[in-house]
Amino acid sequence: MFHDQSKSKSKSNTFHSGFVAIVGRPNVGKSTLMNHVIGQKIAIMSDKPQTTRNKIHGVYTKENTQIVFLDTPGIHKRKSKLGDYMNQVALNTLNEVEAVLFLVDVSTGLGSGDKYVIEQLKKVKTPVILVMNKIDQVHPESLPPIILQYNELHEFAEIVPISALSGNNVNRLLDVLEHYIPEGPQYYPDDQITDHPEQFVVAELIREKILNLTREEIPHSIAVTIEDMRVQENGVVYISAVIFVERDSQKGIVIGKQGALLKEIGKLARKDIENLLGSKTYMELWVKVKKDWRNQDRILRDLGFRHDS
Ligand SMILES: Nc1nc2c(ncn2[C@@H]2O[C@H](COP(=O)(O)OP(=O)(O)OP(=O)(O)O)[C@@H](O)[C@H]2O)c(=O)[nH]1
């Protein structure tokens, strides 16, 4: 929804809030942009290997506007998973946000990965803002032809060139974005910049291992939730996670013969998680069949508003 009232808005008492998804093929600079907008805490996370592909929620609060950024799961998988990389769950998420930031890398040109994302974005009614990143890498004169190329493929709500790395024009992007944020409650306190990032990353690391080990048998729509995560007295981080699948047959696949696959998932995930957290972990993994979990409000649950396992 377009609210052309940004000037008056900052002076009024009404609060504006909403969700914005960041999409784009790998390496276009999604994490870098997020870091620039949100601040150091996420940057520290993203410096660790293995985490940049994970969904990270960043909360940006300025005066009376709050924007919650989502790195949409399933929207920028690697090529081998191109076929189902933007499944219905991801599309549902994109339909529920106020705006989508579609990041492209102007230094590499328009590629098949970008075209694929555009095709998917056509199925979404949410306004899409084309964010042309890495402008520090190209001559300004080369931008207009690139813009034309993208314009031919889709009608974007806005086009904003930026350098996420240097921060050039990022404030303008935020100004533009604020126009799309409707009146709404303040979801998070002023000083909160991420919503339990470790838990999200831990869940995504487990999910990633399942997908890698099961290939196509298990859809991307499986969900992993962290039921419990805390540091024990001996310094070991205890993690209890539930893997939700939609069918009994999938449960069997994830567990494997005599639990072999689940063990392997746990082993590989633990390695990454210990690397991420810098401490030893003890992890319990459970597999549950939850037939209609997809019907639940994915965004709200992911953001921790509701924990209904
Ligand atoms: N020169 C330049 N480099 C950039 C810019 N933005 C990001 N980069 C670099 O591009 C690389 C990829 O950036 P990321 O932020 O990790 O990209 P991403 O889209 O999150 O990648 P995935 O997590 O793989 O999806 C990093 O080396 C960044 O430093 C920019 O504006 N200019």
Report on the architecture of this protein.
- The chain is an alpha/beta fold and 309 residues long.
- It folds into 2 domains: 6-178, P-loop containing nucleotide triphosphate hydrolases (Rossmann fold, 3-Layer(aba) Sandwich), CATH 3.40.50; 197-302, 2-Layer Sandwich (GMP Synthetase, Chain A, domain 3), CATH 3.30.300.20.
- The chain contains 11 helices and 9 strands.
- The chain has helices at 6-11, 30-38, 40-47, 88-96, 112-121, 143-153, 170-178, 197-214, 248-255, 260-277, 298-302, and strands at residues 16-23, 58-62, 65-71, 99-105, 128-133, 158-161, 223-231, 237-245, 281-289.
- The strands form 2 sheets. The protein has a 6-stranded mixed sheet, with helices on both faces.
- A hairpin with a 5-residue loop joins β7 and β8.
- α8 (197-214) runs antiparallel to α10.
- It starts with 5 loop residues before the first helix and ends in a 7-residue tail after the last helix.
- The structure holds guanosine-5'-triphosphate.
- Guanosine-5'-triphosphate binds at residues 24, 26-32, 52-53, 76, 133-134, 136-137, 163-165.
